[in-house]
């Protein structure tokens, strides 16, 4: 059975981009007779207090985007809050350490920028390998000098990883050049997104991941982790980003695109109908429930380039 998921990070009220992600994931899974899991990605508890998660769950219910396994619907894969799943991430990290794939890193973000580390085409800093070959004695001395715990990085092998995205098509990265050694755990002990999402999707039986195209470049890293940990990888579908009329990426700071404003001036069906229209599978912007959109949804109708929201549509 197909198992899709919503995996929002509750750092504020959800906006149109989050809603589009949940809608596409819901439609893709439901159209195949599949199930939907809701997981709350609240690893950063300071930015993601529980009240935001509670509001997000209420908003999804209001939108008619239900789930089969998650908060309030125990399906045997809980807990459903990442902040309560850290023992699982620690166990996965220990397995990688036992393989000799992990090393301590004492570099700060400021130091990496100051060192003019290599950059990807999307502007992301690639780790230059500064701490990769430190001996145990050298690492101990760095820890003494800095007075802080190190972050932990994965030692990326000399490999190319290729896959075919269900919507965007073929994608490939040569890991040393395009990815670099990436974080598994920050110096403050917080586990990194890349590790947590792999452990959780595998443990929850997720077979299909739908998410924004900004995460396409994360997929080779995650496929590497699936392989190293002996886990079955899901199929990935990345969709174009939803942009404001002026071309900005939407964020939770954009109140005009958030449900705190939209909830009071539009029905759930109006919001979903307009989003489906922008995504190419609602013939007009007329109101539609999620259930009604099932008959017209198809991935080949969804554009591959970013989508601007016309001024005044919402």
Please characterize this protein's 3D structure.
Helix 1 (16-31) crosses helix 10 (268-278). The mean pLDDT is 93. The protein is of the alpha/beta class and 314 residues long. It has a 3-stranded antiparallel beta sheet. The chain folds into 2 domains: 3-84 and 240-308, HUPs (Rossmann fold), CATH 3.40.50.620; 101-191, Glutamyl-tRNA Synthetase, domain 3, CATH 3.90.800. Helix content is 34%, strand content 14%. The longest helix has 16 residues, at 16-31. The protein contains 11 helices and 11 strands.
**CATH superfamily annotation of the largest domain:** HUPs
Low-confidence stretches: none
CATH architecture of the largest domain: 3-Layer(aba) Sandwich
The structural domain count equals 2
Shape type: globular
Which class of the largest domain in CATH terms?
Alpha Beta
Name the beta content range.
5-15%
For the termini, the CA-CA separation is 36 Å
Write down the Rg: 20 Å
Mean pLDDT: 93
Helix/strand order, N-terminal first: EHEHHEHHEEEHEHEHEEHHHE
Give the number of DSSP strands: 11
Largest sheet: 3 strands, antiparallel
Could you tell me the CATH topology label of the largest domain.
Rossmann fold
